[in-house]
Structures are given as structure tokens and as C-alpha cells.
């Protein structure tokens, strides 16, 4: 009898391709391979493949190569792809809760960003669940600073500048500073500067380095205005269709990826600011006058956020301040 089973198994393995139960998932992400978020995600997929003995293999399509950044969330929602990464605050047009981490001067340190995420997570988890989506992990970018072609000492110095933006909050921030915002995806930054489409930006030292900002600006002013996050979400139906052991492997790898990602982000801040300086960028501490002006814009935006926020979204701030 045992021999029969062995023979039957052997026959099956000839008929069926190797590891017939194995699944392959495609995973679109917006940022390039060298960016620490992508490096972290590739490690996440490797851990899943190993833990499941190859039963789930996730292929990462970076830099918007499979889906453009603005389309990634809906691609996961409609299960065109089961999993994907995007910049969380891009969803602020759906609900203000998604945008809180990109509000100027609400949380500007990693410790505060962690507290804010703890308060934000349950609220956005519920919102995403209504769309059949489940968050797996979120990782912050280093604090956001100002890249310009000349030194900026006061908000007025930004007046009229063509300003690269990556979400609605940054657009609003630039507009209130008297600049003229244009949406440009991270991989397109060098081209937008070289063609004169934009001449200034706010982003992290990481993106300043990955876009080789020294080719088109001279000055970096670490205003540390907010600590925005990327999020990895999975289509819940696709997740539910997996074997429980595979589901657990994903959840465990996600937990590790969140922890590792926050550590990588913290290390990036100094590391990448140093690389900016080594490449000739003038790293200038912001003047008190500049910070005062920017904080006034932040206050205005916080008022606007409060007006647009649901009661549930407002609990994020209440819990964060507790
Ligand atoms: N880099 C991304 C988002 C925030 C950041 O630091 C970008 O500039 O698009």
C-alpha cells in the first residue's frame, strides 16, 4: 500500500510541474530599486518565499513599471494585482485620515511619527477594509526638507518658484508659500528639473540622493516638516484564498518588514544627508524666520484638515496627543 502511494506520488510529480501549488504574485511599487523602501520590500518577498518553501513567490515591479503610482491602489482593490505599495497620504482625497502624516509640523520626529501611526492605523485599517484592502505594513520616509537653487531665508524667497509636489498636502503647502506646484512622480524628478518644469522641491534626503539632486539644485534646508509613510496593502480576497500557513508567513514577514523599514529610515536621514553634502550640496540649517513662516502655513493647513476631517479621523489627533 505504502509503495502504491509512493509510486502514485512519483507519477503525479511527473505529470504536474514542480511545485504545482506554488503561486506567483505581481507587486507594483512606485519607487526605484535603490530606494530603501524597495530594498526592504524585496527582503519581505524573499522571507515569504523562504518561509513558504516557494509556495508564494512575489515579483516586485518597481518604479511604477507595472502600474503608475496613481493607479496602484485601485489595481489592488480590483485584484488586477493582489498586493502593492503606495504613498499613503495620496489617499487624502478619499478621507482626511489618510493624509495626517503629511500635514506640516504635526509629527516631525520618528518618535512622534510612531505615535501618530499607532493612532492612525486602526482608523485607516477600517477605511481600507471597506474597499476589500488590508494593510500589511507602513514605513516612513526620513523627515522632509527643502531643495532649492539658492538659499532660502524666509517664506517669501519661495514666491513664484515652480515647485515639485507629490500629493495634495504638499501642493497646498507650496501654494500657501506663494510657489506654483506641479505633481511629479519620484522617478521623473531629474527630468522635471532638467526641462525646467520645476525648480524646487520638498522631499527626503533619500529622494534627494536617488534623484541626484546635486545635478539641479545647490541647497538643502532640513526643515523636517513631516514624516510621511509608504504603505503595503493586500487584496483581502486574494489573501483569504491562501493556505493559512502562507497567510501567517505573510503576516510575520510584514511585521518584520515594518520594524526593519523604520530602522532603515532612521539610519537614512544622516547617511543620505552626508551624501548630499559630499556631492556639493550646501546643507543649511533653516533660519528662525523661515521656520516661523512655514509653521504659520502649517497652522492654516491644520485648520483646513480639521474642517475636512470626519469625527473618526479627528480621533487620530486626539489619541496622538494623549
Ligand atoms: N520621497 C518620495 C515621497 C516622500 C519622499 O521622501 C517622493 O519624493 O516622491
Provide a compact summary of the structure.
The protein has 322 residues and is of the alpha/beta class. It contains eleven helices and eleven strands.
Describe this structure as you would to a colleague:
The chain has 322 residues and is an alpha/beta fold. It folds into 2 domains: 18-93 and 109-140 and 228-273, D-Maltodextrin-Binding Protein, domain 2 (3-Layer(aba) Sandwich), CATH 3.40.190; 145-226 and 281-320, Bacterial extracellular solute-binding protein, family 7 (D-Maltodextrin-Binding Protein, domain 2). 47% of the residues lie in helices and 16% in strands. It has helices spanning 2-15, 36-51, 69-77, 110-129, 168-176, 189-194, 205-210, 236-240, 244-278, 288-308, 311-321; strands at residues 23-28, 56-61, 83-87, 133-140, 145-148, 162-165, 180-183, 200-203, 219-221, 229-235, 282-283. The strands form 3 sheets. A 6-stranded mixed β-sheet has the order 7-6-8-5-9-11, sandwiched between helices. The protein has a 3-stranded antiparallel β-sheet with strand order 3-10-4. Helix 5 (168-176) links the parallel strand 6 (162-165) and strand 7. Helix 2 packs antiparallel against helix 9. The chain starts with a helix and ends with a helix. Residues 9-18 have low confidence and may be disordered.
